[in-house]
Amino acid sequence: MLAIEVELLTGVSVAAQPDNRDEPEWPPHPDRLFQALVAAWGRNEPPLDNERAALEWLESLECEELVVSAPWAHRRDVASVYVPPNDARTTKDVEKSIRVVPELRRNRNPRRFAAVVPAAQPPIVRYIWQRAEGVEQHRAALSRLAAEVTYLGHSHTLVRVAVLDDSPESEDLAWMAGAPRSLRIPHRGRLAHLMERYRADARPDPSLAQRRFVPPRGEGRPSTLFDPIAIVLRDDGGFVPALDAFPLVAKRLRDAFLQAADGEGLPIPTLLSGHDADGAPAETPHLAILPLADVGWRYSQGRLMGIALLLPREADEGERVAALRALVAFRRRGARLHFGRLGSWQLALAAAPDLKSLRFERYVGPSRRWATVLPAVLDRHPKDKPGRDLAAIVEQACLSVGLPRDAVCGLRVEAHAFSAITAAPPASRVRHALPEDSPYRGRPLRHLVLTFAQPVGGPLVLGAGRYRGLGLCLPVGKEESP
């Protein structure tokens, strides 16, 4: 067992989400602690080899063994403050050089420092790897590095860090309303990436490997095989495709991931490609690429606003990390999708989206009633025969995404040409937007409204086109304002 304790000496944690400076990060993610340990190691002259070995061992620990204990914390109000930019680096231009004099500075930049204040005293966060084989070999080196950490992330967050000798009594992190449900963690190769970015005088990419705090399937209400936590990419400018054409957008994004991974010599897992080693379609669940759109609100306009990347709950950790590395490679290459003469769509990672239409939680439920945003591809044309009617086809589609049989017992199904979700495109427009070689073009596309006998949890994505966004369902309930 390895336990690292972090005490916030000022009682405040100043840390923001990587892509939203107004949203605080709580608790400090394990990758933030890892980066602080790496910085402490790098300050040694020369850096010690046994400490590097300890960091490489730490990044290799299994994320599922990590437990985080943190007190409840409330968000501090964020106010804009104005700070001067970095000092001018030239002495030849007197006008520029004189700007470093405080009384003469006029080029102040606004900054906002998101922070939380833990309720407990003393404010302590513990990171515990419950099974850490080989810890005794590296405990002394990690203890030295921990003692040299003075702040975590932001210099305002002064800390005391220590490696504990005894096993603390700790429970898994209790998620409060509005708190994140996953934590960025270090992974194999993280130290090498940080060193590479430091030598290039560039900011490191945020770690996309995550420790997910998700209740196991089979506990609580029925749910699907998909992870309720998605990676969200938001619109960041350029040509934004129509929601009708999303299956083509999903294929374009998947191909871009594969090209980026191949270009950097990364392995391409089945989880990402959707094909096995022989090139045949995979029989196991894989990455689903789903639309996030301005739909379902009173004044929705049906605009495509982003993309959700959804992985199966039981995905192999090695394949999960390989898929995330492909995403990082895609971001390094500009994170653009090209659509010929129509232009390119720029995407950006949205770790904590501020727009409700980009928050994937709205697709998770639970709910008794669900309706499709994009029409579902039915496995066959419904017929007026037992076991081949619409209800039987949709029941089988629900079973295929992991809902238990007792959850679909008594399921009521309606099929329509138009969606019950405000501003979602009709089935005819989606069919018309499918390319000629689409495997879904000649199959029945139907908008569905499903009513279960009991609330079920999502994400609920049904039918043969579910990995490209077709059949994505949204809980049907009371309208909210966007």
**In CATH terms, what is the fold-level topology of the largest domain?**
Alpha-Beta Plaits
Distance between the termini: 46 Å
CATH class of the largest domain: Alpha Beta
Shape: globular
The poorly predicted ranges are 170-179, 478-482
Provide the descriptors you would attach to this structure in a database record:
482 residues, alpha+beta, Alpha-Beta Plaits, 4 domains, five-stranded antiparallel beta sheet, 23 strands, 23% helix, 23% strand, globular, disordered C terminus
In short:
The chain has 11 helices and 23 strands. The protein is α+β, with helices and mostly antiparallel strands.
Detailed description of the structure:
The longest helix is centred in the middle third of the chain and has 18 residues, at 246-263. The protein has helices at 30-42, 49-59, 94-97, 135-147, 190-199, 246-263, 270-273, 317-332, 390-400, 405-408, 427-433, and strands spanning 2-8, 13-14, 16-17, 20-24, 66-69, 73-76, 80-83, 109-112, 115-118, 124-129, 159-163, 182-184, 210-212, 231-238, 288-293, 304-310, 336-338, 344-349, 367-372, 376-377, 412-416, 445-456, 473-475. With 482 residues, the chain is α+β, with helices and mostly antiparallel strands. A hairpin with a 5-residue loop joins strand 17 and strand 18. The strands form 7 sheets. Strands 15-16-14-18-17 form a 5-stranded antiparallel β-sheet, with helices on one face. Strands 19, 20, 21, 22 and 23 form a 5-stranded antiparallel β-sheet that branches. Helix 1 (30-42) runs antiparallel to helix 2 (49-59) and helix 6 (246-263) packs across helix 8. It has 11 helices and 23 strands. It is globular, with a radius of gyration of 25 Å. It starts with a strand and ends in a 7-residue tail after the last strand. It has 4 domains: 2-77 and 113-212, Alpha-Beta Plaits, CATH 3.30.70; 81-112, no CATH class; 231-360; 363-475, no CATH class.
